[in-house]
Specification:
This protein is α+β, with helices and mostly antiparallel strands. Helices cover 24% and strands 28% of the residues. The chain contains 15 helices and 29 strands. The protein has a 6-stranded mixed sheet with strand order 1-2-3-4-5-6, covered by helices on one side. A 6-stranded antiparallel sheet has the order 22-25-26-27-28-29, with no helix packed on it. Strands 7-10-11-12-13 form a 5-stranded antiparallel sheet, with helices on one face. β19 and β20 form a beta hairpin. α7 packs across α9 and α7 crosses α11. The two termini are 45 Å apart.
Length: 603
Amino acid sequence: MVEQNSGQLPIDTKLNHQYDQVLAGYPIYPHIEAFKRLRIFLDGGLPYSEMVAFRLSTIFTHRLFSLSKDLLNLIRKGENIFGIPKQDEYNLYKWVDFYLGDASGRFEETQIVDSYRVDEKNKKIENKNWFGPDIQMFIDYLTGENNINFSQLKPFTKKLSKRGYFAKVAGKNINLILNKPQNLNGHQSYEVNFYPKRDEERGYVWLEGYLSRDLNSQAMVCSYRIYPGESKLHQWKGPETQSLIDWINNALTFELAQQVTTGFRQSRDRNTIFIEQSEKNKIVIDLSSRRDLNKEDKFVLIPRKDELYEWVEVYKLGLPDSKPTFITYARVNRETRSKLDSLWVGPTRQRYQDYIEGKIGIRDLQSYGITVPLNGDIYLFTDKKNDRSISAYLPSDIFSAGDEVTINLTENNDNKLIIEFRNESDPKKQIRYLYDRQNGSFLKISEDGQVIKNSPGHWSPERVRSEATILIGKHKLTKITYEVFSELGKSDLAHGISNHYPGGIIQLSIDLGITPHRKPQGYWSNTENIEKEALFFYQTEGDLSYGLLLKRTGASTLRNAIQQYPGKIDGLRKKLGILGEKPDTSISSEDVDQWLDDMLKQS
């Protein structure tokens, strides 16, 4: 409360002072005296420190003031209106605040009804384009006026408009539009508290708005990125997401990129995480192969990097007492429009891909674990240069479907790649293959170290179909014979079909649909047929997902059949042992595991 007394009034030079501390023991003058001093000040005859508090007792006309309708209505009602001259601690602004009080001169600090700026340059006092010192400082920071720096900015408050979900700062075309808060009908008295914020390390400056429902509850309703000297507010998703976007766009170093918690957009054909979507940039992670996700699910995106690759790992947050579940990888590829390759095989298997294509050396390869599929034929990578997929056969007398297998790497004296598959539960169960770079195949190595060419494992039925399918597509073959394959330089494939494919070249033609052959009635009702077709698709394409089935011409029948399979695509992948590569946490940053534990505690 502020009381009337005698003495000379000093000027409030600190915005955080309480008015009762400033005015206690000092008089409140009539407005005629106050306006006289203000006029002399504007003419350069008085310092601002000699301005005085005053009371508006009558309606008047004065060249210094043009009273607002709100003030005029209060005066007509006989209310006591008091004017208090003020200036900020940086001497940037001078203004007069008007308060609603009682006859004795008492008024509440919060009862401000209007505010007028003292314009020294134009020698007038008006409330047009004046929003109080805190908001005005923010506007001037955006527009580049008065050389405002960030350290001078202060929080400010705006009431919600009559519509209930807008707060406007109507200066220089700057509008603060809030995300629509829920259940606000009839609650226009709510206020929004705005806080300017800065990230020194990354150079971000932004404004956050919080809806204040009560003293103990605030909910964020907007966040705008701002640039000093630019009269515009930019929509964004906050500093964490922006750091991830900037790293992906090569505008920020990996060390400054942060983990992000987000949801995803669910549509009819796909689930997608949109990290950024604008006219210039579109950074997305495709989760179309995961039909087990719900729109309420939350995910953690973790930036990762090793000496060769950069990528984002996606984890699904579960219950508070459970660990986040690994979902997928997405490789950073700045040359593409989407900037991320969602169908990436992971940093370990990608090394094999790049080794086959001659991009890296054998010493860059790493061991990793994988699950043995139903047929024992493990897809490893694709030789894009020669249009062929590379896989290795694990015989059923050594390995069973579902076995956890470690793939270890060695090299012989000729600098050739040797891959060893070892059963984790029984290390004695192992098999070794020599990679034949010329033919893009694996040759079995016997226990005495001898290479066994054209072994049954080398030309498994799945490999035969895979190699034949690639040749058919590449050369647009309408028929296949041993002679055709030999003429194309694939006599080894012809030999594999003749010696190891059940039914030989005729059955292979039927299986690949080269000769006219309609599927018998009820064919797609048989789960074994679906498994066979899905396995063939997996071996030729390198993956089995709804997204890939949608992209491939002629795969619609298989896609529809999978929808009727028990457990749909996830059940089918589990049945076939297509579980994919396990995430390699050994190459993560040191604090990732601790971070995941902290996330669980905060959930």
